[in-house]
Amino acid sequence: MQAVAYYAHSLFHPERCQRDFAELVEAGVRGIVYSTHEQDLRQWPRDIARGFEQARAAGLEAYMQFGRYGGVFTGAWLVPSTFAVRHPDSCVVDLWGNVQPICCLNSERFRDWYFGTTEALLRAFPAEGVVLDEPKAVGLPCACETCRAIAGAESPSGAPAAKRLAEVRADAVVRFCADALASVKNVRGGAKTFLLALPRDEELFQRLCELDCLDHFGTKAYWLMHHEPLDSVRESVGLVRRLAVENEVGSAIAVQNFAVSEAREPELRRAFDIALEGGLDCLFFHYYGRNNERPERVWEITREALGKGR
Q1: Which candidate among 63, 103, 168, 243 keeps its CA 20 to 30 Å from the CA of 277?
Q2: Domains and their CATH numbers in the chain
Q3: C-alpha to C-alpha distances, 108 to 103, 114, 176, nearest whole angstrom
């Protein structure tokens, strides 16, 4: 089982990166995910390029995550999209006419910007792959002019119109993910592609697993964040394993080792065991996951799990 760490720390300090990467390799980790954000290519390209090269020199594969570009995927930092703020005409409009801080995936202006920006990042930095992480607001109907035209709804009012607009939004998410995966392969043909989706929705997961250019599909077993029983981890592992086999793609699961209280640490250990017993291909976790009551203990539990997965 390949272990991949979300690395949410700064790449500005080479000595710290060297130390961290050596610790990850010692623990049996094969790769890191680094979350880029909209201003990174302009603000600190040398730091990111150096950090990626350090990861590779240490023996780690470096995967890129497009953090909150247009608000459409998750990222390491809870920051608003500059593009969405500057271009509200490209954003989702809810059923009550309110503009939301997330871009409409049917907006040609946003699509042109997104693919131009992310392709430039892929050309600039030596990443071995890309993680498309948590496509956002799948169930949020968009009532912008473009989406209403696609839905054939002059007005968003009424249950039939709302249902059709929700379908248009779900279709747009799937199509955008397909185009995003193809974009990665067009720029870096040998790059690995991962898609981790939430919330757990079997119909949506099936559609995403069928996408061309997808190498690994998975979800996030964040039972603590979503106030779910620990059994939900097992359900997620089973669903991902089945869909991955049926669609002949790799399988992945992310275990929540952040925001863990001391009282829930035994659950974390069990969640890792469930993930490891599930026979999936990739295990994602956070390096020194944030907001833990006992960070060192959580990291010890994580390292113990990594040792079992070797």
Answers
A1: 63
A2: 2-76+108-137+178-309 (3.20.20.80)
A3: 10, 10, 11
